Structures are given as structure tokens and as C-alpha cells.
Known about the structure:
The chain is α/β, with parallel strands linked by helices. The protein has one domain (6-210, 248-276, 317-335): 3-Layer(aba) Sandwich (Rossmann fold), CATH 3.40.50. The protein contains 11 helices and 13 strands.
Amino acid sequence: xxxxNFVVASDLKxxxxxxxxxxxxxxxxxITGANGHIATYLIYAFLFAIAAGKLNAVIIALSRxxxxxxxxxxxxxxxxxxxxxxxxxxxxxxLTEHVDYIFHFAGNASPYHISTDPVGILKANIxxxxxxxxxxxxxxxxxxxxxxxxxxxxxxDNEERLSEKSFGCLDPMLSRSCYPESKxxxxxxxxxxxxQYGVKYGVARIAHCYGPGMNLVSDxxxxxxxxxxxxxxxxxxxxxxGSMLRAFCYVTDVIRGLLIIAADNDPARTFNLxxxxxxxxxxxxxxxxxxxxxxxxxxxxxxxxxSSKYCIHKRIPLDCSAIMELGWRPxxxxxxxxxxxxxxxxx
Length: 347
């Protein structure tokens, strides 16, 4: 993803104009997992706001892949308000600077990595969150904003809408449980550090973020795979009957939500962050994407869903009223978001 891509630049201007930056003025902000999709957009948004004169802040981008970090942020390395730290959050984080906010996004969420590197996912989420929480404990008045998932709710057959107080069951022995179970544990770590040490946090339970810069190769998530198929060989493959439902949230709406959560005065709170306005079936999503790329066809395999990679629980909409009470609303429709995402990969 390029900072100069015309779709990304338009997105960043939208975020810059809509966000309230007062809470971050004069602050130092650490973002872990800085090579990831959402984290990259967040870092770009901060840097764009600083360049636009809306914000005075210091940004630190952390990732274990130092080479990729250097490549992704090469144009910013000379800026006095930006620095990079090559480190694995599952190990020690040696950071002497004072930090006011930590956006903790380290850890992979793709079904491909869930099936091939479950131990790495556990380490990044559990050990990584311990280390981030310990770092925040040593930095006075530091707040952690944690990227969690709707999958922490597990299976819930009793509610029509899931609020932040809802909970369901998870089978810890399932192949893909490394992801939701470690996210659950991470939330508990943050809550425990708050109770015992007063560490502040805001948890964002994000559902199906998409947009420019997402990985289209060997990712396994339906939006990435379908767009990758359409732009690749032109054959979108649906590995099920396509009846499962999803709701997707464009990346700019996710970034605005994260900034609102970070600026919230509550020292310990959890929020659902999802666009629940346009629920769509997998097969209808495939057809919609095919319509944006001429010549694309859709092949339905009608296999049983692979439970080792994908969540097979019935989708229950998230109740996002908590973050909406703070002024957040999804602003990008699925049609507009798909158009922008596909355009970003074509130009």
C-alpha cells in the first residue's frame, strides 16, 4: 500500500477532516504490528494529520520484520516526528521514550496463518499483550488501544444482537481456536492490569475490516480472496454454498472508530466496531465483486466450510450503540468501499 495511492490519499484526507485530534496533540504514540493493514492505515492517518497541521505528535512504528518496516515507511524515515523499532512483541520491548498511547495490533488474523502458525498467533496475542501491558505500566498515564475481534463472543444461540456484555462458548481444542481464545486472554490481561496497576485500555472488537492495502495473497479471508481472485485469474471461487452472512467495515470507518476509542475518557472500556448496516451473503458478495471487474466469473464449489480455518458459528449482528454514543457512525457503504478498494489495486 502506497501513501501516494490516490484512493489512500483520499481516504487519509477524509479521516483527517473528520477526526478530532485534540487528545493526541503533544503525545507520543506507539503502534505495534506496524506492517499490518489497519496499523499501516492508522500510522498513515497520524502522519497525514501532522503534515496537514492538525496535530503535533511523535509516532513510533513497531514490527518484528525490520526490513519490511524500512521498505514500507522509507519516505518517512527523515521526519523528526517518526521513528521505527524492529522488535517482536512476544519478546522484550526496549523503549526508553515516554509513550502516551499504544495501539496494539501485533498478531496475525488470517486463516492461512491460523492453520500454519497457531503457536505464533498465541505468542503474539498473549505474550505480546503481557509485554505491551507491562510497558504501559512503566509509562505514566499510558493508554492501550487493543485490536480484538468479534470472534471472542464464540457461539451464542441465545441473543439476537451481541453487546459488549454478551459472551458465548468456544471449544479450546478446535484448530482455529488459537485465534479467538488468545484474543479473549488478551482482553483479560488488559482488564487485570487495569485492576491491579491502573493501566488504561480501550478494546475494539473489530469485525471484517477491508480496504486498500489488505493482503490479497494467501490470506484466506473472504474479502481478500475474492478481490484477489477477481484481479488475478478472474475466477472467484466460493468454497461453500455461499449462504453464510457477513458484514464488512471499510478501513476509514475502523480508523475513525479507533481514534474515538483512544480519546474516550473512560479508563477501561470495550467497544464493538462493525458496520451492521449492510449484511450480505458470501455468494452475493462474490457476485458484487465480479461486477466490478469485467470478465470475472464465480465458481461455487459447495464444500463444507473448513472449520480449521473459518468460524462456522451462525453470525449474530453486533450491537454498536456504545461507540455510536460517542459520535461514531459507519460512513462508507459496501458499494463505495468495494469500488475504492478495487480501484486502489488497479492504479
